Amino acid sequence: MAPVKRYSVKQKIEDIATCLALDENQIKGFGYGNGRLGIALFYLYYGHLTADNTYAEKAEDLFSQAFDELRNEKFEGHFFEKDLAEFGMFIEFTQTANWFDFEAAEILESIDEVLLNHLEHAIEREDFDPFSGALVAGNYYSFRLESTDKIVPHLEKLVHGLYQKKNIDSDGNWFWKSKLTDPNGVVYTGISHGMGAILALLANLYEHNILPSLCAEMMLKGSHFLLTQAKEFEKHGYYFDDIVGQTNGISRLSLCYGDLGVSYGLLRVGQTLSNDVIYTKAIGILRNSILRSSLEQTGVRDAGLLYGASGNAMIYNMIFRLTGDNVFLSTAHYWQQRAIEYGQDTADSTAGFLPHLNRMYLATNVGFLQGIAGIGCAFIQTVCDDAPKMDKLIWLL
Fold first, then answer.
1. Are 177 and 183 in contact (CB under 8 A)?
2. Which of 77, 135, 210, 337 is the most exposed place for a label (fewest CB within 10 A)?
3. Among residues 357, 325, 324, 240, which one has the least CA distance to residue 289?
């Protein structure tokens, strides 16, 4: 697997920058996943790459628009808190990167309190999804740990909530549900909605000495639950269904779903607790995931972060940095090249890229999680070694 061709990447980055500047590609929303702050992130990365301060000014203008939208408009729906958390995470990320420098304590402390209310209600209804449930607040507070210890009691509340609301299977293993799509709850295995995200967050909290004994117990019980769900790779071509108990045999290879997110969570547990059994299992799953490359094997149909090739490149690169194993770096290069190849579409595409899902929405095409803003940020990280790593923005805690 040859490293990515840098000239090809840079050309696509320039195409994305040109496309995002068009009036027709301006979006609303105060989060970064599907809102204007995702484009702001691209401008900050692009300005870093080109040493052009005008792009930082563009990002600041988008941030001001997002802040005005947050303050002045009425929002409804269960993704308000997710976007609010993303707004706060954007501030923390850009200040840590020394891209933005303004007094944000009052803003962030207000977000802390709003999300505490959300956290308490999510725990009560036993929803631990990173989009709709308690991990909306949990992932945000994990960002805040880098700048304040005031939110430690909030994270302790989350840890206690996870412990109190755990489900126990017949073997004594523990699991937690998402109520994003089903009021009765389902058990997602991966990192965007389910168990992989919970394990990664618990590992992060353990490392920050937040109720470490409880975190360790839940990491072990949760890891054992996931490992009991594993299928025979030789028979099925994958290990984990997207949802526990589903019968349609779906397991995508992506940041959003499937073996990558599960094994990332297991890897974090194995390393954090120095548990050789869990670590070895995680590495075995990851090494077999490398064998999956075709559309039929992976379900990958575009270049996006959430479901596509750029997200796979990001997670394999993170796994390389955690393990030092060059096979994962080579695999990251492979998926980076695949992402470039997906940028050759012309009809109805945006800067050459065409998302497979939800393409009828402008935010899907130009935004961060599924669109060209996120693809562009991922590309810049491949050609600019000193660009800030955006792992935590995509649940890789």
1. no
2. 77
3. 240
Q: What's the CA gap between 126 and 161, in Å, rounded?
A: 9
Q: Which of helix, strand or coil describes residue 259?
A: helix
At 346 the pLDDT is 74
Give me the half-sphere count of Cα atoms (radius 13 Å) on the Cβ side of residue 258. Answer: 26
In order of 299, 335, 345, the CA distances from 294 in angstroms are 8, 12, 19
Q: Are 323 and 268 in contact (CB under 8 A)?
A: no
Report residue 346: phi and psi, to 5°: -120, -55
Tokens, residue 238: 């994958």
Between 276-289 and 212-228, two packed helices, what is the crossing angle to 10 degrees? 50
Beta bridge partners of 178: 186
Number of Cβ atoms within 10 Å of the Cβ of 183: 8
CA–chain centroid gap for 216, Å, is 23
CB within 8 A of 61, min separation 6: which ones?
Answer: none
DSSP state, residue 131: T
- The Cβ of residue 185 has, within 10 Å, a number of other Cβ atoms equal to 19
With residues binned 3-state (H G I as helix, E B as strand, rest as coil), the percentages for the chain, rounded to 5, are: 60, 5, 40
Task: Please tell me whether the overall predicted TM-score, pTM, comes out greater than 0.85 for this model.
Answer: yes
pLDDT at position 301, please? 93
The pLDDT score that the predictor gives to residue 248 is 75
How far apart (Å, rounded) are the C-alpha atoms in residues 26 and 79? 20
Report the 10 Å Cβ neighbour count for 64. Answer: 11
In this prediction, the residues of the chain whose per-residue pLDDT falls under 50 are 1, 4-7
